[in-house]
Design brief:
Elements (H helix, E strand, L loop, with lengths): L2 H7 L9 E7 L17 E9 L2 E10 L25 E7 L2 E7 L7 E3 L5 E7 L5 E7 L6 E7 L6 E6 L6 E2 L6 E7 L2 E7 L7 E7 L5 E2 L3 E2 L5 E8 L2 E8 L6 E2 L6 E6 L5 E7 L5 E7 L6 E2 L11
Parallel strand pairs: 1-3
Antiparallel strand pairs: 1-4, 2-3, 4-5, 5-6, 7-8, 8-9, 9-10, 11-12, 12-13, 13-14, 15-17, 16-17, 17-18, 18-19, 20-21, 21-22, 22-23
Length: 305
Amino acid sequence: MTDLRRLFKDLDRLDTSVSWYEVKLRTPGALPPEPEGPKRVLAIAVALAVAAGGISLVLRAFIFSPAGPAGPGPELTSSPFVPRENGRIAFSITTRGGMELHSIQPNGSGEQVIPTPRGLPWLPAWSPDGTKIAVSIFASGGGPRAIWVMNADGSEGRKIAEADNVSVPSWSPDGSTIAYAAREEDRTEIHLVAPDGTDNRVLHTEQATGTFAIFSAQFSPDGNRIAFDRGTDAGFDIYVMDTDGTNLRQLTTTGTDYDPHWSPDGTQIAFTRQGEGAQSDIYVMNADGTNIRQLTFGRDGQTNL
């Protein structure tokens, strides 16, 4: 398993001298933060930053999300991509007291704290209409992790899922469903759940021996497919399936590929390919796994994801 995956699994034990930021852009709306949408990633910059009392490591993930519109109804339906202006950013930051969820304007102004339940808020995801935010809460003392959904200002929070090692939540384009991965005893699963916590159902399950696990589950922009990565400490690859759990396909076979993210039009998938040690780079492939291209060319020890 890469150092980054181990950090994700052991986030609740992070030293507060390390500052971690996950940043997501939203489209504008009435409330301070705005929608996330399809989907993300482009780079992570690792640098040393001088902080009061010493030097701390800063890891930033900039995730750009030109959102598609909300779909027409409660069923998962195809949603055409319509470009929108990006809005506020949500990010998690460690503090001396633990971790906080913040939002900020793209120009760096208007930073606000989004109140969250007790624990370490991590991996936020905006609803397509920008009125709500889903976030994974890591228990500060260890134990099961939970996904909470709340209004964009942090009010009216509701726990919708709890399990070992829950992943980043992913909204369907119509806003009716959230996908997430979780470990349940001897099983690793992909779940679908309504934003109010009802209708939590298992879409896909596999036996989980040793460190084998599914690490993520990401809705495609049209809501018809889910991309995810699965594997062990020794290797992991990217898969895709339809949102009814059928038509499972393996897209990569290197044993070093993880963290898939759809392009806004759903025709491509960006992902991280692990090199030696901490070195990794960003790749892009067609949504069927063909035409893999390398986008970044990191030096030894440089992490791009």
